[in-house]
Request: fold
Amino acid sequence: MNIKRIIWTMALISALVLTVFIVVPVVSQVPPIVPAPSDSYERYGPRVDDIIFSVCGDVLSEAEALKAGLIDCMDWSVPSGEVVDWLADPNITMGDYSEWGWYEFDLNCMQWPTGHGDLTPPGWSGSEPAVTTGHYWFNETCQRCLDARQFRRALAHITDRDAMVTNMEGFAEAMETFCFPGIAAWENESAPTYDYSLALAEAALIDGGFQDWDDDNVLEYSPGHDGAVIEELPTLMGWIRSDDPDRKFAGEKLRGDVIKLKIPQAMVVADRGTCYYHAWVEYDYHVYTGGWSWGRMPDMYFELWHSMKDTYPSSGADNYNRYHRKEYDDYAWGLKTATTAEEARSYSDACQVMLHDDVACIPLYTFAGFVAHRTNYGTHPGEELYKGLKWESFVNELGYSFYSMWNPINAHPEGFARGGTYRQGLIVDIEKFSPVHAEWFYDWLILDQIYGSLIEYHPLDASQYIPILARELPEQLTWELEGENCTRLRFKLIPGVLWHDLTPLTTADVAFSYAYMKDEVSVANYWAVTNYYGAITTANGSGWWGPTLPSDTIDILYDVESWLAMDWAAGTPIIPKHIWEGKDSAAWNPEDHDAVIGTGPFMCYKDGVVGRPDHVRGEYCHLTANPQYCCKYVWPDACDALGNVGRDKVVKIIDFMTVASPGHIFTYDTRLYPELPAWPSGWIVDGDQLLDVDKNGAIDTDDLLEIGVYFGWGWPPEYYKMVPPT
Reply:
């Protein structure tokens, strides 16, 4: 299970994070790779005409597809067995990275013996707290609570991280807390750790009353720790993901040591769907080999283990570990509602000490290795024009490397301002086209190209946000709710944004998106909207709220004051009100109604119908470049004031005149039509035919339309400019 997260930006975070940006992988075979994260990226695009996502099925098949030139980029790390050869292969470009996320052993803290009692049997359908015996909260006066904790500590002592890293041939960083290397400055060194040791595990079990009391070679439990009363232990149910060979190894290693400790077990290797069902839907598990992709804040200590994040019996709870401790809730809430990074740090430290002392969940490792892309454009029928050209402008993003969402916008064949098809590998096919409920990493590789948000995080600098649908970063204000200050973010939208179906984007769409994600309990985005209170737009901006806002301005109101509010704003994709309003998101799928409509750089387009996915399950998903993208690669400032080659930074009548002058209109790019007379060399700069405004290979009436759309504008507008790293 993965979740898309966004970065928080503050001055202190720069100090905390920038010192640990580049995590050099511990590689047993080869020295660290030379390519570092990119030093630039472009906010405008896309530079290719299409994306084809090809479903490969597994990592090794995807690696073979890359070697064969069938795909341009992998969506997963390079298999360790390929690293040495690929480093020396000029046809493959490698990028090193340390993952923004981690893998863990999830433990069910509400199911004996990993939890403190048989409190909430699977299928229970009442309201929380759901108790049949015992109590809802962990506390230090409950012997069964303490003994379950000892059982969890025993599992922590048989978590062999060194073996896991060795199995991955050094392409991993072992983790004792959930502060992965990218945010290692947040790690509290006082948090408890657990050495790998069968002897220490056995001692922890004995301290919890777990022994082979009747000498039958199976562990039992004695509530009095004296053998006077003996309870047979339930079978330890473990669900080990088969689709990830590294998680499979970790789970099977744990299972082997569980058997050595005489714990009755049924730890099963199963496919992703089966594991998901037991861990996230039925909650009938003790151990699950989980994993999370995260942002760059330690707010996982609130989002994943505060008791309010347990929505049982509803499926998909963030806190599917079902950890409930009142003292911990206080610390986690303090982390969420801190108003400064310094204050947040103190709460983060406290969370780490308590959660890891209780062993609510066991961190394993984060990946640290390589992602690969083809160095040159491949051989594809009908695309001979680009064959063998170098791929330019790939973005090696921190935490993601080349499977960054920025690459389909930036990458293009050498010598062409725009053109070609970007082929992206997918290990697993997209499951849902709904941005409300899509939750898998693979889904979001596609959906991130279709839907946009107000702001996004900087791909090269974790201390920055960058505006996307917003004209600039928001003004950060407060408002008062029941006598308490709460956060208020004021956004100005960039002008002229259109949905893929050409409906204009408005502030009403933004307000609707936040409210809808909250009302529908969006699996992917609820963390970002749970504290959303409302929005102020020109339609309701008068009265005590203050002066009426302009039509392009919206205030997002939260019901708490929090340093994480920018993170929440960025974490919410904007969806079209005219499509989603009145829909039951649990039953209504946009792909069934040709309604996969966003504002992103690529769109679903099939049979002449915008919003209809071109998708064959198990094979491919095809997206088409959005010609109306709000940050598209268009330069309608075609010439200077004298009609010479160059741009004068203003779109005006001379641009019309130059493009429409005799001999220009309907004259085609000579690279596409070499039989036509060549243009004077000055009209093509770095592969950019200056008069081909929309970059479709022709100088035609479409270019005049683009000039008309932007007539009178200074060029480029502020939101088109590249944001350089600091």
Observations:
- The first helix runs from residue 11 to 17.
- The CA atoms of residues 405 and 448 lie 7 Å apart.
- Residues 469-596 form a domain with the Dipeptide-binding Protein; domain 1 fold (CATH 3.90.76.10).
